[in-house]
UniProtKB/TrEMBL annotation:
PROSITE patterns, A to Z: FAD_PCMH (PS51387)
Source species of the chain: Saccharopolyspora taberi
Annotated protein name in UniProt: Xanthine dehydrogenase family protein subunit M
Taxon lineage: Bacteria, Bacillati, Actinomycetota, Actinomycetes, Pseudonocardiales
InterPro entries: CO_DH_flav_C, CO_DH_flav_C_dom_sf, Diverse_Substr_Oxidored, FAD-bd_PCMH, FAD-bd_PCMH-like_sf, FAD-bd_PCMH_sub1, FAD-bd_PCMH_sub2, Mopterin_DH_FAD-bd
Record Pfam families: CO_deh_flav_C, FAD_binding_5
Length: 328
């Protein structure tokens, strides 16, 4: 680990001022960043601690929407009574992430800013990885293990997936990330906050280097909702694939539904074609649900190691819809 200096920001303006120096990185609770320092993924000259900023609120607006402060802890949001009652998809996505110890520390903003778990990106020896060292190649696509990689939206430069559970729920909820920078406030839809790799895999998301996340806003009335996480062990494990769904149904028939998948792309992957096809389908019609969901898989491009994700992700989406609708 390289030496760095450490300071605490007392105000948002102080944190933004510190970001003018390109050698500065913000640190919230450090559950991700400290790993990157140890692994050499980040080598900042200066860390600025933002945990003293007044950004930890969890507020319910008059219309029933939510405002989650960027520094709200994952466990506090998951346990909030309104979140549990009206936004179960959100509570479940947080509750199934990481471990209890991590959730007690880690923040909402830090969760959205985490980076891929691609083993070549995280390796402690230098391996070809365009995300870590632009232009160095891609060890995964060049004959490596692609079992944890993308089936949608990948490029010839990178096929990594994004590991946050929360981000998948926020995409299904049509949430918005609010950022501030020296040029003012910017509201970024959660569906577009994370980038596809394209030719610039080293750019992980749309936050500019001089910006800070202050909050996440979740609109009211998502209807019934559920987060299904498929993983290799029952706790403390990242998703192989996951599905976040919200739906309004009457007499067991879907009026409208939204679906976002995790573990299949470099950002939460919404299924617009499936969402359109689901209107009018009964929740107790598994074949109808499956056919609707399949509409969004015609452009899936699995890699040699992850063909199983095409089937798994469709099954996860159907099961999440049925669970949200109270049908087993
Ligand atoms: C072993 C392990 C298992 C995990 N499992 C899961 C899992 O199953 N599912 C899941 O979703 N997550 C998982 N995580 C990720 C975990 O949720 C994140 O580590 C955590 O949310 C990061 O929050 P933090 O406050 O510690 O961020 P930090 O580590 O302090 O910061 C991480 C990054 O976010 C930036 N940042 C933090 N706050 C802001 C802000 N307000 N504005 C701009 N930038 C900011 C920092 O500059 C840094 O780049 C796991 C992590 C670990 C270590
Ligand atoms: S998939 Fe992306 S993160 Fe993984 S080795 Fe290739 S370039 Fe790096």
């Amino acid at each position: 680990m390289r030496p760095f200096t450490y300071a605490r920001a007392a105000t948002v303006d102080e944190a933004l001022g510190a970001l003018r120096d390109p050698g500065t990185r913000l640190i919230a609770c450090g559950t991700e960043l400290v790993n990157w320092l140890k692994e050499g993924i980040e080598t900042p000259a200066r860390l600025v601690d933002i945990t003293g900023l007044p950004l930890a609120g969890i507020d319910v607006s008059d219309d029933g929407g939510l405002r989650l402060g960027a520094l709200a802890r994952m466990s506090d949001v998951a346990a909030h009574p309104t979140v549990r009652d009206r936004f179960p998809v959100l509570a479940e996505s947080l509750h199934r992430a990481a471990s209890a110890q991590l959730r007690n520390m880690a923040t909402i903003g830090g969760n959205l800013m985490q980076r891929t778990r691609c083993p070549y990106f995280r390796a402690d020896v230098e391996l070809p990885c365009n995300k870590r060292l632009p232009g160095s190649g891609c060890a995964a696509l060049d004959g490596g293990d692609t079992s944890s990689h993308a089936i949608f939206g990948w490029s010839n430069d990178c096929a990594a997936t994004f590991p946050s559970d929360l981000a998948v729920a926020l995409a299904a909820l049509d949430a918005t990330v609010t950022a501030v920078g020296e040029r003012g406030v910017r509201r970024i839809p959660a569906t577009g906050f994370h980038r596809l790799p394209g030719t610039e895999p080293a750019r992980h998301n749309e936050l500019a280097p001089d910006e800070l996340i202050v909050a996440v806003d979740v609109p009211a009335a998502p209807g019934a909702s559920h987060y299904l996480k498929v993983r290799e062990r029952a706790s403390y494990e990242f998703a192989v694939v996951s599905a976040a769904v919200t739906l309004h149904a009457e007499d067991g028939v879907i009026g409208d539904a939204r679906i976002a998948l995790g573990g299949v792309a470099h950002r939460p992957w919404r299924l617009p074609a499936a969402e359109q096809a689901l209107a009018g389908i009964a929740l107790d019609d598994p074949a109808g649900l499956r056919a609707a969901v399949a509409r969004s898989f015609t452009d899936a491009r699995p890699l040699p190691g992850n063909k199983f994700k095409v089937e798994l992700a469709q099954r996860a989406a159907v099961r999440a819809l049925r669970t949200a609708g109270g049908v087993q």
